[in-house]
Amino acid sequence: MKGPLFYAKILLFGEYGIIKDSKGLAIPYNSYNGAFKKADVLEGKALKSNGYLLAYYNYLKSLKTDLVQFDLAQLEQDITNGMYFDSSIPQGYGVGSSGAIVAAIYEKYAEDKITVLENLTKDKLLRLKAIFGLMESYFHGTSSGLDPLNSYLSLPILIQSKDNVESVGIPYQQNGKGAVFLLDSKMIGETEPMVNIFMEKMKNEGFRKMLSDEFVAHTDACVDNFLRGDAKSLFGNVKKLSKVVLDNFKPMIPSKFHALWKKGIDSNDYYLKLCGSGGGGYILGFAPDFEKAKASLTGHDLELVYRF
User: Fold this and answer.
1) Domains present along the chain, CATH in parentheses
2) What are the tens digits of pLDDT across the range 255-301?
């Protein structure tokens, strides 16, 4: 038994902002993926994954919803027969490890599912997003459903607002100097505590004003710049976004990266932003000149995502 591959995702723009109706842009990241496999003898990671799937099966069994129904009998039987999710997607790194599992479960066990081959109208995309949000809330407490949607469709997803989601084309990669990259913090991040900190901050009127006046405005501009292929304007707006995040989202940035974050803004060698909810995992970087950024970030592990 080997199921289809489900890929990692990178939320280029929109972390936290999409909670308050900013734009968002997520792209598949094909360097990491996961698929269902089966083993007669379970051990190590396979055994642990099988146990996780059993716990998740119990969650799905307890769900009271009209949005989606699953073939739970088949799921239970497959888990009993040694099914596990074989994944290279790092957990707690902000690249959609739980999203891939959710997408795989939906694809294999949902009844009357919306398939990737049909005409994906706005209503169908919103329905899928709602289903995936419900399914993924098991892992994070709350979920927008965006990670599983991206993994399921394996297409770039543009969030215009909470009620307006569409698949989009992104500009072809160039062989220029500029790049988007991932910086490995070497720390595991947990989504739920970070979202709780954000929700607590949202009780402050000044924070809410900053979010709408600065954070959402810069995020929306970055999305527009990226989709138009306007790299020059993009780097200017990412720099502004990076500064706003450093000033207002410090708990989401591991403390040992605060100085490195500021160094990028001051030197213009690179600009860092959160990748997902933060707290660890990957940090997303944008560099006008990737070779200069690599030199400036010597000693850190970088992964190239996209070239301008």
Assistant:
1) 6-167 (3.30.230), 179-307 (3.30.70.890)
2) 999 999 999 999 999 999 999 889 999 999 999 999 999 999 999 99
